[in-house]
Amino acid sequence: MALSRDREEEQRLKKAYRSCGIQAAAVDYGGDFISSVKKVIERAVVAAKREGLIAEEEGAEGGVAGAAREALAQIMFKALGLNMGGKIGIARYDEHIVVVIFCSIGLLHLNEVAFGLGHRAVASLGPDGTKKTGLKT
After folding, report:
1. Which are the contacts of 101, defined by CB distance < 8 A and separation ≥ 6?
2. pLDDT tens for residues 44-76?
3. Domain limits for position 105
4. Is 129 part of any domain?
5. What are the φ/ψ torsions at residue 5 (nearest 5 degrees)?
6. How many domains would you assign to the chain?
């Protein structure tokens, strides 16, 4: 999702992933790294809720925020003090949430590409969007 070129490709990928039981979402971002940290985390959480990957509850939102923060930490040393822009990809399979940040980092035309990835486990959702209870059998 983080490498999709346009909205049409995002839709095709979401459909293909859905057939495998994977829910996915993507969102763009950009700006100075320091000021973008909060924006990236917020956009990841909002996109995950909007696309139905998580319920609107603290544990699930915290899981996505934590995974986004972990992904940002992996690119921080390359991006600190520079501008960055790219795409956030979010995927969920059962209780596993993964956030991937793909970005171009640089100053003027001197750019570098970076990826960051974070994972968290959150409560599984039933078909009606509520938490599943009990163990898998």
Report:
1. 2, 40, 68, 71, 72, 75, 86, 87, 88, 89, 114, 115, 116, 117
2. 999 999 999 999 899 999 999 999 999 999 999
3. 7-121
4. no
5. -80, -35
6. 1
Does residue 85 register a pLDDT over 80?
yes
CA-to-CA distance for 112 and 123, rounded, in angstroms? 36
Give dist(CA 10, CA 1) in Å, integer.
Answer: 6
At position 18, the amino acid (one-letter code) is R
Does 15 map to a domain? yes
Predicted pLDDT of residue 5: 74
| Interval 23-46: pLDDT, tens | 999 999 999 999 999 999 999 999
Give me 91's structure tokens.
């995927």
Q: Quick one: how far is CA 127 from the chain centroid? A: 22
Place of tokens 């000021």: 35
CATH code: domain of residue 22:
3.40.1510.10
Tell me if 40 is assigned to some domain.
yes
Q: Model confidence at 16, in pLDDT bands (50, 70, 90)?
A: confident
pLDDT recorded at residue 126? 62
Residue 96 within a domain = yes
